[in-house]
Amino acid sequence: MKRFNSQTLILIGATLFVLYLAGVPLVMLLYGSIRSAPIGEPGATYTIQNYIKAYFDKEFYLLLLNSVYYALGTCTLTFLIGTFLAWVSERTNTPLKKLFVVMSLIPFIIPGILSTISWILLLSPKIGLINLAVKEILRLESAPFNIYSMWGMIWAESIHLYPLVFLLMSAAFRNMDTSLEEASLSAGSSMLNTFWRITLPLMRPAMFSVLLINFVRGIEAFEVPALIGVPAKISVFTTKIFLAIHQFPSDFGLAGAYAVTLLAISTIGVLIYGKITRKEERFATVTGKGYRPRVIDLGAWKYATLGVSFLIFFLAVILPVFVLLWSSFIPYYGVPSRELMSKMTLANFQYILNYPLAMTAFKNSFYLSVGSATLVMLLTSMIAWITVKTKLPGRALLDNMTFIPIAMPGIVLGVSLIWVYLTLPIPIYGTIWVLLLAYITKFMPYGIRAASASMIQINKELEEASLTAGGTWFQTFRKVILPLLMPGFTAGWIYISIIALRELSTSILLYSYNSTVLSIMAFDLWEGGQYTYVCALGVLMVLLLLVMAFTARKLGAKVGIAE
Amino acid sequence: MADKRDMVQIESLEKYFGEDKERVHVLKGVTLAIPEGSLYTFLGPSGCGKTTTLRCVAGLERPDGGKISIAGQTVFAFGERVYVPTNKRPIGMVFQSYAIWPHMTVAENVAYPLTIQRRPKDEIRRKVGDVLKVVGLDGLEDRPAPKLSGGQQQRVAFARALVNEPKVMLLDEPLSNLDARLRVQMRSEIKALQRRTSITTIFVTHDQAEALAISDQIAVMHGGKLIEVGSPHQLYTRPKRKFTATFLGLTNLIEGKVLEVDGDSRPAKMETKKGVLSFMPSTTLKKDQAAVISIRPENIPLHKEKPQNLGNVLEGTVKEAVFMGDAYQCKVAVGDDVLAVHTHPFNAVNPGDKVYLYLEPGSCNGLPADDTEGVDESMMGD
Predict the structure, then answer these.
(1) Are A437 and A341 in the same domain?
(2) Contact B87 A459 (CB under 8 A)
């Protein structure tokens, strides 16, 4: 029948494309992990040798233990920091809490590799500013802190990842119908009792899901384990896979076996997460109404909560940004002193801008970031329309497929794509196109989340009104749906362009000389020991990110609803 | 039953919602015809299928059986696989939420049906100006849509539905989001607007007072079926179905068995627990058929003393008498049953009074007791 022609076409097209993006790498990864020889080599046979080699290695269990320890530590610490800040900003009368959101968003803008570097520059036993300063003040023999340890790694990761917890928990606090609490209070229950019997059970699904998502993020983290874990000889899955491929000769089979294991762990996490959040939706504490949260008067304690919050922001934002800025202006790395201050220079920036690869890296990163964000948001907007607004059969499957990559750690995706493009006769291996496809795949889940969330907000009648007014499907999509979707579209676009610009773990397995990106360049400079140059590059990256986010905001507001 | 002057014809419409086990049969063979230029109301409780029927006419739902035609053109026919998409149907629709696009101004909203057809700019400006004048919103062209009040939003929705001069206007509970006073005002405005433009209009509501006040014809729906069609007066005074009698206004039902009957419009007699009562059959009834008498509370004169020389008198005791200003609303116990009776305010009654109720045979509508059957052709509006 006629009506669904364009819709069915879009559904089929989107499904095939998503299947190609998400399904093919998965299949190729599994296939690669059971092949005896690297791709392309003749005479390869099916084997389970890779898995035997992986699992019968004593080191494997150390690896597993390390990874889980690291991920658990990270999710616990981020949860404590993020939830505390969320509670303070949403439910207490702590002064200046409006600043919290801004302060919590800044670490988002700082790429993970830069934040890791800043913490090495702060807490390294030899050159760490904090160590040197404390040693000086307390006249200690040795450095009090050592970033090159498991707790150092957990700290560096958590102080970077907590903003997500802050945002998710803030939303959970904000969306909770406070009349549920008020009902308990009016039923004669005390504040504390209400907290235990009402607030906590209502928040439980949100808390579990936040913990889980951070566990998964911890287990697939790459920057901190690569920059701190490798020199400290603390191996986790991601670095092990990276090293298996970066050694000579590369052991693709072993990397594949490890990658499958890592994938299995994160998939389990994501599946449980999905189950919890679905249940959470059934809890329906979120009704879309704007509740006025009940604010707790902390009395004099509000200065204590303010103090702790600012200590966190000082550690998470001010110190890292300061150390990056400081190091980018000095000729050699050292503690701030009058002498060094007099030597401040722009030479690092000049070096970076004249660095032969810099222009290529800037261009590549920019194109990849803007390109992947735009394509992902367009693709996922259409998918979201299908899954949210139509009753086409197969839409649930499409929705699930779009989510598959969320369970794929970046490094695993990298390994998979090596297999795909070394095997399939599509000559894009080593070009910027393979990175673009990788980014689209990786960021699709974020895009679909942003797009579906705002698609659900759009009353179906707004769209039907256009149809009854004589609009075709495409006119309706362009003139009604897309503009109404614009706030979500922009938010998703900004988020994706930011994480695309700092992407390292997938790119590092797929780049070549001509498709270098900024994060790779930073990684290489760091490995080469050129600390001050890295910092200058980092400052430029952050500036680029700020400009992009700002421009997107402006443009989005122009097209969408003026608020 | 096809008539040239019927603007919309719906035949044996079937619709299911959900898949597999959760499949629900929401429209069960709805057949009706909407005369050109009339204001036609689908009335029924929520879940009766009235909105679904409307959405099928709009093409927003695809029926699972049956046929729909608008202005003589078949827009849907299940058997022949005909389906004209919504945007190709000559309709204008006002939604329950008004569906005013928040990213456009008043003028942009109203002009939309014309701009997507790429009509000339001055034609658009003229038509938008005209239609805004009709709904009383001239001067508000450049106001952003979110800055409108509920009543204004609704006028914009009407203007947008009218601007392209549709053959049929579809109104999906357009008054349900307004407060009570505005609702009454908009009700008469809609009626006046419809009179002025004489566009065939389908109005969906669950509010029986609204339906009575506004409609030329009402189609009463229940459980996915069409129960009865008629003018408001017909349906209120002479309902042919028990559901209509109880859904439209308040009524008393007295169950019994037909004793004597002589055609449709001649007095008949029924055997009830309260004795033999005379009544008027509202529809064809057979001897010995289980039936009910439906009589409105305001049609039962209440006497303090037993009226002489009158049949159809029941003796009872007042249980409750609530003074409402324009009437006493009484509950009168007659045997095991309680009848609702509204009396003139000057006729004071008190609980405990012994009273006599005169069930005037002409007001006693005799209906079939069994109301599970669908409507048959003979009951359709004439």
Answers:
(1) no
(2) no
Phi and psi angles of residue B263, each rounded to the nearest 5 degrees, phi first: 85, 175
Lowest mean pLDDT among A277-291, A311-325, B14-28, B332-346: A277-291
At A434-476, the pLDDT tens digits run 999 999 999 999 898 888 888 888 888 888 899 999 888 888 8
Task: Return all residues near B30 (Cβ < 8 A) that are at least 6 apart.
Answer: B10, B12, B13, B49, B53, B66, B221, B224, B225, B226
By DSSP bridging, strand B275-281 and strand B365-368 are parallel
DSSP A391: -
Return d(Cα B157, Cα B171) in angstroms, integer: 10
Residues A235 and A371 in one domain: no
Chain A positions in Cβ-Cβ contact with residue B116 (cut-off 8 Å): 469-472, 475, 479
Chain B residues near residue A471 by CB distance under 8 angstroms: 87, 112-113, 116
Give me chain A's average pLDDT, please: 85
Q: Which residue of B has its CA nearest to A470?
A: B87
Reported in sequence order, the residue ranges of A94-182 that DSSP labels E, i.e. its strands, are: none
Q: Which letter does DSSP use for residue A480 in this model?
A: I
Question: Which amino acid is located at A463 in the chain?
Answer: E
Min Cα–Cα distance to chain B from A2, Å = 7
CA distance B380 to chain A (A): 29
Of A319, A345, A371, at which residue does a domain stop?
A345
**Structural domain of A411:** 1-29+350-563
The widest CA-to-CA distance across chain A, in whole angstroms, is 83
Whether residue A249 sits in one domain with residue A129: yes
Q: Is B117 in Cβ contact with A469 (below 8 Å)?
A: no
Residue A563 has pLDDT above 70, yes or no: no
Cβ pair A461:B117 closer than 8 A: no
Name the interface residues of A facing B (CB cutoff 8 Å). Answer: 1-3, 459, 461-462, 464-472, 475, 479-480, 483-484, 486, 560-562
Tell whether A257 and A298 lie within a shared domain: yes
Q: Would you call B83 and A479 a contact, using CB atoms and an 8 Å cutoff?
A: no
Is residue A157 within 8 A of residue A229, CB to CB? The reply is no
Do A283 and A400 lie in one domain? The reply is no
> Is 0.90 topped by the overall pTM?
no
The pLDDT value given to residue B340:
94
Is there a single domain that holds both residue A339 and residue A355?
no
Establish if A210 belongs to a structural domain.
yes
Query: Do A126 and A164 share a domain, yes or no?
Result: yes
State the SS3 of B277-326.
Answer: EEEEECCCCCCCCEEEEEECHHHCCEECCCCCCCCCEEEEEEEEEEECCC
At the second CATH level, the architecture of B6-237 is: 3-Layer(aba) Sandwich (3.40)
Going from N- to C-terminal start, the domains of chain B cover 6-237, 301-358
- For residue B117, the chain A residues in CB contact (below 8 A) are 470
pLDDT per residue as tens digits for the range A392-417: 777 888 888 888 888 889 999 998 99
- Contact residues, chain B to chain A, C-beta under 8 Å: 58-60, 62, 81, 83, 85-89, 91-93, 95-99, 101-103, 112-113, 116-117, 144, 146, 157, 160-161, 164, 170
Query: Predicted ipTM?
Result: 0.76
CATH class of B301-358: mainly beta
Residue to mutate among A390, A463, A468, A561, with most B CBs inside 10 A, is: A468
Give residue-wise pLDDT tens across range A61-111: 899 999 999 999 999 999 999 999 988 888 888 888 888 888 887 887 888
Contact A479 B160 (CB under 8 A): no
Q: Which residues of B100-132 are buried (b: 16+ CB within 10 A; e: fewer)?
A: bbbbbbbbbbbbbbbbbeeeeeeebeebbeebb
Instruction: Give the nearest partner residue to B116 out of A459, A470, A483, using CB atoms.
Output: A470
Residues of B in contact with A486 (CB under 8 A): 103
Determine, for residues A461 and B95 on separate chains, whether the beta-carbon distance falls below 8 Å: yes
